[in-house]
Amino acid sequence: MKYLIAAACVAVAGAGMALAEPVVGTWKTEVDDGAYAHVAMSKCGAKICGKIAKAFDANGPIASENVGKQLVWDMEPAGDGSYGSGKIWQPSTGKVFKSKMSLNGNVLNVSGCVGPFCKKQTWTRVN
């Protein structure tokens, strides 16, 4: 009986680790229009979303009306560090792009398109 309970505990713990998304954490965006952000990525149900946690310019942290706003949403994990079918908002233009992401260690390649116009950024992990 002890072994059955222990095996069940190991199985539950293993399932929890398998459900963890490696993209969850805080990411530093590239500079856009003189500023960059730290984006807190988290699970939103079965999908991934990200909110602006802090904003910066060349001199350091800045007060921004965009802190706390959703930047990434509806991102679906596709396996092997790939995410798709999401949306991303570009604060400097106010545009929302169809987006996908690809994770490689501590680098997150983010791309988004509106019609034929696409943009890409490489984000780095903060924590």
Automatic annotation (TrEMBL):
Keyword Signal in record:
yes
Q: Which residues form the signal peptide?
A: 1-20
**Which residue range or ranges hold the DUF2147 domain?**
25-125
Q: Which UniProt keywords apply?
A: Signal
Superkingdom of this entry's organism?
Bacteria
Tell me the Pfam families matching this sequence. DUF2147
Q: Which InterPro entries match?
A: DUF2147
Name by which UniProt lists this protein: Imidazoleglycerol-phosphate dehydratase
